[in-house]
Design a protein that fits this description.
It is elongated, with a radius of gyration of 29 Å. β10 and β11 (300-308) form a beta hairpin. The longest helix is centred in the middle third of the chain and has 64 residues, at 401-464. It contains 25 helices and 16 strands. The termini are far apart. With 682 residues, the protein is α/β, with parallel strands linked by helices.
Length: 682
């Protein structure tokens, strides 16, 4: 055979591959188009029916519910530099009180354990769990150790958690998340809220394609899935499970809650609960956010916008990490899911399972289509510039089957672009919407390589009969809390306590769930000044002992959100040498400091002072019209997240106009149910 014969055979193969890719893409596109139509018809119908008779949900209603005990589970393997920041921010920013965070660590991961220990010292409701087996095992195994520890905790402290929340070490959790779960957990067994990636630089197409996919999946696909079938898969983060769901999973798995022979235990547990006729829901609830920006002239502009109660996190930013993560998802959902869950007798269920598993073919077809287009364009170009060439029939002729398939697919592709742009715009704005177009192509290549990695990994390990290990990706966290050393170690170095006293205090902390410093203070082992100085060393901040009245910047303090200052124990001093001191009694959330900085023209510097000093100044400068009792009550309900800060002005105004005390005024608006009243002075 001559070269031309081989090339003719190659050209014939190209034609059939084009036909194969066109058919696969058409079938997938029809499926996607059905989901699009279902979503928009449902949305329009609900706009003129459901939303006409039902007012939008007001998140202030969440504060009126009795707080159920909730356990948060966070598995952590090699999370040094991430887990401490994540847990500390969550524990300090939740608009909830009756919760406990359980962080699973491994005996051969001392660095992660050390970070967790620093947070445990500071917060009454953060607990470290150490697995029996060295890591890495897999995420499910770590979660099983965590929940085993939770059950022991319940017995020791005579408590029964009603909600169990799943999170990862890199999650930035919305302050109202637990309030929302608390409101819904009694009537539902699995509650999933949206998950959205953080934005990185515009040219980071790898992270960007995650933004686009999650914006569309959690803006449309999960809504349709729930409406059609009632099956909502857990995303592994931002998921709440009822006590009933945990007990049922334990029963199904013969004593263990999470399956250890899958990489996507979250997906599996959702399907298992659905199969047991439990109530699974996907919830999109917006909360109002107040913000301050500056215009081009430097003038402040205040505004409000609606932000969904959701989970935010950084997703992989390199091609290799993205392929690894997506290979894990394909392995767990499409391959292991097919192997372990099989198919159903229900047409609707099989349709949703098909959507979850079709990636095995569509990931191949999408990239194959790009390669074929390059081949065809190359041939066309070569034909144009060369006269002395063999003539081959065109791959596509106008009016034939393939021509019509490609026209239809072009229409569906345009629809896909418009749908992706819209849902990306809803979350990330116009820039994100425009960038989503080229990121579709980049995402297809990531999915293609992830599919091959998943297939190789799955068949290799299935043949060997081994458990797939925890193939985790490296994590980032957007905020830094600057805790470098454990408080107990600092107190030992400063010779304020000895080792025996520290061990006794840590043992007592495990039973009483109070910060270590607070316990030592209550036992009169250290003074308030000793504690403040130790915390200043831990935070690498200067300590201020005496604050004179003329140092206080009362004007600025009254310009800043005074309730935020009260909740976070912050005062602001007058500028010295163009530096504004911001003083607190301990670690302060970055966003609170940033809020103060926006009101100041000079540079700022953070300091630490005694809590009693700060409280006395706040009372005098900000709340002099309240009695000591009412000031203490206001401070307590804000710190324990019992009322929304946005309602305090209205409550205090009602108190003045109707000559009511503070507690009665709160209750007039439906806040402070009986379980919270008992905690005000606790």
């Amino acid at each position: 055979m001559e070269f031309v014969d081989y090339f003719a055979a190659y050209w014939l193969v190209i034609k059939y591959l084009v036909l194969f890719a066109a058919i696969i893409i058409l079938l997938s596109s029809i499926d996607d188009f059905f989901i699009d139509c279902y979503y928009w018809v449902r949305r329009i119908w609900r706009k003129f029916t459901v939303y006409k008779t039902n007012k939008p949900f007001n998140v202030n209603e969440l504060y009126k519910d009795k707080e159920k005990p909730i356990a948060i589970m966070i598995p952590a393997w090699q999370e040094k530099g991430v887990i401490a920041d994540m847990a500390a921010l969550a524990a300090s920013s939740f608009e909830y009180y009756n919760y406990h965070i359980f962080i699973g660590t491994y005996p051969n991961d001392p660095e992660t354990q050390y970070d967790v220990d620093m947070v445990v010292e500071h917060y009454r409701n953060v607990h470290k769990v150490i697995t029996r087996t060295p890591g890495p095992t897999n995420k499910s195994d770590c979660l099983n150790h965590i929940i085993e520890d939770i059950f022991l905790f319940e017995k020791e402290h005579n408590i029964e958690f009603e909600g169990f929340v799943l999170h990862d070490a890199e999650d930035l959790i919305h302050p109202l998340e637990l309030k929302l779960f608390n409101h819904l957990i009694g009537k539902n067994d699995l509650i999933q809220i949206p998950v959205f990636p953080f934005e990185r630089e515009w040219y980071d197409f790898t992270t960007g394609h995650y933004q686009d996919e999650f914006a569309e999946n959690h803006g449309k696909d999960l809504i349709v899935r729930e409406s059609i079938l009632g099956f909502v898969p857990s995303a592994g983060v931002g998921t709440a499970l009822s006590r009933k769901a945990i007990d049922k999973l334990k029963e199904i798995h013969n004593g263990e809650v999470f399956l250890i022979d899958t990489l996507t235990e979250d997906y599996n547990l959702g399907f298992e609960l659905f199969h047991e006729n439990m109530k699974l829901i996907f919830v999109r609830v917006p909360a109002e956010l107040e913000y301050t920006t500056r215009n081009s002239y430097g003038k402040e502009k205040n505004g409000k916008k609606q932000i969904l109660i959701s989970v935010r996190e950084f997703f992989p930013s390199t091609f290799r990490q993205a392929v690894r993560q997506k290979a894990r998802w394909i392995t767990g959902i499409a391959l292991q899911g097919w192997q372990q869950l099989g198919w159903s007798n229900s047409l609707r269920t099989n349709y949703i399972l098909y959507r979850d598993r079709k990636a095995i073919l569509t990931n191949l077809a999408n990239v194959l289509a790009y390669i074929l287009v390059i081949n065809i364009l190359g041939m066309a170009f070569y034909t144009k510039i060369t006269q002395d060439i063999w003539w081959f029939p065109p791959i596509v002729e106008k009016g034939d089957l393939l021509w019509n398939l490609l026209i239809i697919n072009a229409f569906f592709f345009l629809n896909r672009i418009l749908q992706r742009m819209y849902f990306t715009y809803e979350v990330y704005g116009i820039k994100g919407a425009l960038l989503s177009i080229p990121r579709i192509i980049w995402g297809n290549f990531i999915n293609f390589f992830a599919m091959f990695r998943a297939l190789v990994q799955f068949f290799k390990l299935t043949k060997a009969g081994r458990q797939i290990p925890w193939d985790k990706t490296t994590h980032d966290f957007p905020l830094r809390r600057k805790l470098q050393k454990k408080l107990g170690d600092i107190l030992l170095e400063e010779k304020l306590i000895n080792q025996a006293t520290l061990e006794q205090a840590l043992a007592k902390q495990r039973s009483e769930h109070k910060p270590l410093g607070r316990l030592l203070l209550e036992e009169n082992i250290i003074s308030e000044e000793d504690l403040s100085k130790a915390m200043s060393i831990q935070s690498n901040l200067k300590y201020i002992h005496d604050i004179a009245p003329d140092q206080i910047d009362s004007v600025t303090m009254n310009r800043v959100d005074q309730y935020s200052l009260l909740e976070n124990d912050i005062i602001i001093l007058k500028s010295v040498d163009h530096v504004h001191p911001i003083v607190s009694s301990g670690q302060v959330v970055d966003v609170v400091v940033d809020e103060c900085k926006r009101k100041l023209s000079d540079r700022t510097e953070l300091y630490i002072a005694n809590e009693s000093t700060i409280v006395a100044i706040q009372k005098e400068v900000l709340f002099h019209d309240l009695s000591e009792t009412e000031f203490r009550q206001l401070r307590s309900v804000l710190k324990k997240k019992m009322i929304p800060r946005g309602m305090v002005d209205e409550i205090l105004e009602y108190r003045t106009q109707n000559n009511q005390d503070f507690i009665a005024s709160c209750q007039h608006f439906g806040f402070l149910p009986d379980d919270q009243l008992t905690r005000i002075d606790a």
